[in-house]
Amino acid sequence: MEKKLEFTAFFLFFLLISFASAATWTVDDSGGANFTTIQAAIDAASNGDKILVHGGNYEGFLINKALNLTALTSPSGNNPVNVSPPNSSVNTLIEISSNNVVINGFKIDGNGTVDFGMHFSGLLAGNVNISKNIIFGNEIGLQHNGTGTLNATSNNWGNCGPDFSPYNNGT
């Protein structure tokens, strides 16, 4: 009985540590937050962290960790979280190569110059939830190369070739 109690206490201790280690980061392109770019916040974050993004203009980014990215403003409001290409040419605005990713409330504007608004790469990109985003002005709004689960709900698609392109490259 004593061993069982020790194991239970040990398990609960590590469970609490794992929950306590999740952090919340803030991004604001005009300053006053933890970071001024979304990519810098992603680079500093750990799996399971949440990144809250203030309205403003941001360049594309790569998500290579299990993260929750949430806009603090509506994508159709006066000051949306607008993700668009920089002055130079880019192929993809948001590249996702990790499982357990949430992207909520972003305005993803390819300005007619970007191939993919969002691109899920690799066989591991699964359990990805994309919701309440406005995705437009891209050759393809969203392309999924992975074999995992993708949930795309309540998004507004516009001015893209195919809104969604499932693709299997044979790997």
Structure in words:
Mean pLDDT is 82; it is low at 166-171. It contains two helices and 14 strands. The chain is of the alpha/beta class. It starts with a helix and ends in a 5-residue tail after the last strand. Strands 3, 4, 6, 7, 9, 11, 13 and 14 form an eight-stranded parallel beta sheet that branches. Strands 1-2-5-8-10-12 form a six-stranded parallel beta sheet, covered by helices on one side. Strand 1, helix 2 and strand 2 form a beta-alpha-beta unit.
Outline of the structure:
By secondary structure, the chain is an alpha/beta fold. The protein has two helices and 14 strands.
- Give the total of beta strands: 14
Q: Provide the residue-averaged pLDDT.
A: 82
Structural class: alpha/beta
Distance between the termini: 50 Å
Which sheet architecture does the biggest sheet show?
8 strands, parallel
* Rg from alpha-carbon coordinates: 18 Å
Question: Could you give the order of the helices and strands?
Answer: HEHEEEEEEEEEEEEE
Unreliable stretches, pLDDT < 50, 5 or more residues? 166-171
Oligomer: single chain
Strand content: 35-45%
Apparent shape: globular
How many helical stretches? Answer: 2
